[in-house]
Amino acid sequence: MPHGEPLLAIRGLNVEFGLPARPVRAVADADLTLAPGEILGIAGESGSGKTTLCAAVMRTLPRTARVSGRVEFAGKELLSLPEREMARLRGRDLAMVLQNPMTSLDPLYTIGNQLEEVLRERRRGGGAGRLGSAVEVLRRVHLTAPELRLRQYPHQLSGGMRQRVLVGMATAAAPRLLIADEPTTALDASIQDEILILFRELRESAGTAVVIVTHDLSAIRRLSDRVVIMYAGRIVEEGPTVEVFRAPRHPYTQALLASLPRIEEEEVVLQPIPGQVPDLARLPPGCAFAARCPAAIPLCREERPRERTVGERHRVFCWRAGEGAA
Ligand SMILES: Nc1ncnc2c1ncn2[C@@H]1O[C@H](COP(=O)(O)OP(=O)(O)OP(=O)(O)O)[C@@H](O)[C@H]1O
Questions:
Q1: What residue intervals traverse the membrane (predicted)?
Q2: Second label for 83, Cα 20 to 30 Å away, from 29, 245, 272, 309?
Q3: C-beta of 27 in contact with ligand 1 (< 6 A)
Q4: Which pLDDT tens digit goes with each residue over 269-282?
Q5: What is the pLDDT of residue 273?
Q6: Domains of the chain, residue spans
Q7: How many Cα atoms sit within 13 Å of 93 on the Cβ side?
Q8: How large is the ipTM?
Q9: CATH tag for 8-37+44-82+222-323 (out of 3.40.50.300, 2.120.10.30, 3.40.50.1000, 3.30.70.360)
Q10: Looking at ligand 1, which atom is closest to the CA of residue 48?
């Protein structure tokens, strides 16, 4: 790839749940790379495998999940890494922020107690050297009155403040990769942007790469360098954000973006597309989107589309993408 060694390289990743005889393939044949400091947005309807993909990288999938393929992070293959080494990576080089900031903080302890505990852990793990104090962590995420916040309990903070605290905790050791799974879904629109700006700052100050899973396509457009669109467990399109938004090539991406207004500031969530997401345990032999696709031809129902390159680093899995029809 043109940007040197990738920080993260996912190759042929498969994640299955359920009985082996009737597996639910939550992620199928995923290939994806991320350069250091790059911001990648992942979008797709509910159940398309976004969370499962992220959890496979963090190795936080339930034990019932069957995982195959490779996940290389900074030269290490994570899927076969001993849990002890994986635990050391998590929270230091690899961090995660989740959707619900309330459940990630312990209601019985003050913010200060919890932050100190995280900092102690990071120091034990040989943090990246810029940990600083708890107050500094809160300043870095622009929390007002940080000294006061340290003495408060989670319920005394607003949702936006709690998410700032969690972003601060997750990124205290300047991780090389931050995975944010719908980090702003539970927050007011006005606060969402402020949280997203934190990610950008983190990239600027610490060179952190960010994977952000969101239903908010306009956030992806504003924030990310590259975008991945997932459908029924598969990556269907991937490319530079500007290019994918300007000229989406997969009919599914086109349908998602059709409703996107020109005004950049407006929040745009995924619009429902006619038809239903197929049952992952009973996928058709061809393209999983064929039944809902306005451009489908018989081949689409028979054979799974192969990867096509349609621009620099822009790829799409659609039989019709090369024809200009899609
Ligand atoms: N622990 C599990 N056991 C069984 N099936 C699971 C499990 N976790 C996820 N799945 C299935 O895997 C598929 C992908 O789910 P996933 O949560 O990754 O989708 P998603 O794109 O993140 O959805 P959302 O936007 O709603 O978070 C779904 O069909 C889901 O039912």
A1: none
A2: 29
A3: no
A4: 555 677 888 888 88
A5: 76
A6: 8-37+44-82+222-323
A7: 15
A8: 0.96
A9: 3.40.50.300
A10: 21
